[in-house]
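Notes, Module 5: Reading structure tokens.

Key idea: the token line is not a picture. It is a compressed description, and you learn to read it the same way you learned to read a sequence, by spotting repeated patterns. We will look at two proteins. The first is printed below with its tokens.
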Amino acid sequence: FVCGLMLLYLAGVKDDLVGLRYFHKFGIQVISSLLIVLSGLYINNFYGLFGIYQVAWWIGIPLTVFVLVFVINAMNLIDGMDGLATGLSIFALCVYGTLFQLHGLWFYAVLSFSTVGVLVPFFYYNVFGNVKKGQKLFMGDSGSLTLGLILGFLAVRYACYRPDVIMPVGNMLVIAVSPILIPMLDVMRVMLVRIKKRKHLFKADRSNIHHKLMDMG
């Protein structure tokens, strides 16, 4: 996780400073996701969702890589308005932190809440910072990409069926995805709109929900 996080962060820094081609960025996202999956952490159970329970590794591993890359891009795409990505992430991290705390998984709870501790002051300077006084902070790709990996990692960790680590409670896959559902639904809608209009899937435009709301005033 840490190796994947650092790799993604450095790719984000390069993209923020000098630019990075989308397929290079996508490739690094896949590699970062594979580092997590190859450590043995992947979605291996649907907990009865769609009538499916245990999932074979040859399905679970590519599915998990897809989910991680999807969440990373979802957070990257939704970072187009001050405080939006940060606010949604703070909410999601508080939910994950509480869930892991209830299950006694303190490492993941500390990871969640410490990330909230980083985001709270950033949120203040991102939303209320004064540009003229040099007090305005922006997330950039280095922030949104790493934040996406953290959220995806926590979601997969909670969804991974390991009764010796987490005692299964209800449909844990649905619970794991719920805190990050808004950015995931938004990126699905954006991709469908771009396909319908025959636009480039990775080329930035103003088809996100927050762009629509901003255009409405």
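Here is the second protein, with the sequence above and the tokens below, as before.
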Amino acid sequence: MKIILIRHAQTPGNLEKRYIGKTDEPLSEYGKQELSLRTYPECEAVFVSPMRRCIQTADIIYPQTPHIICTQLRECDFGDFEQKNHKELSESPSYQAWLQSGGTAPFPNGENPASFKVRCTKAFASVIAANSEKSCIAFVVHGGTIMSVMEAYARPKLGYFDYMVPNCRGYLTEFNGEFLTVTEKL
């Protein structure tokens, strides 16, 4: 099965390098324009985070393909860091502690990164199991969601942050029932 993983297009918060998790931002005009300049592989079904930025991206890329909302594919809840950027957080002791943890400590008043990864990989596995008869499906989701799935399933095995992708980008992969192999970076 071919699996396409695409990160949503740019939002105003992405432009300002803010932590945008549970905030339901729309796409920026730049994000919409960037999508219009790109092409993506065709697929039989599109699985989408419930966040507006992902739905809008999927609507632009795959207007004729059925979209299935998958709540568990939403981005991480960044808690107290939500809607803030590195500069705004740089003096925060809790942010410094989180950075020193290598991004593994729970977000204050937010989600635990380990739990987030489990949520995303379970949702991915569930979608794959329920769609095994299809030859190609796409996921239009968040950077963190893609990083979680790739860390768990991609071979060769790399770390979470090794799979960071810019907006509108992602991976075309092949799934052999056990792991993903990247055939093209989008």
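Summary for the second protein:
- The helical segments are 12-15, 29-36, 52-61, 86-89, 93-100, 113-130, 143-153.
- The longest strand covers residues 2-7.
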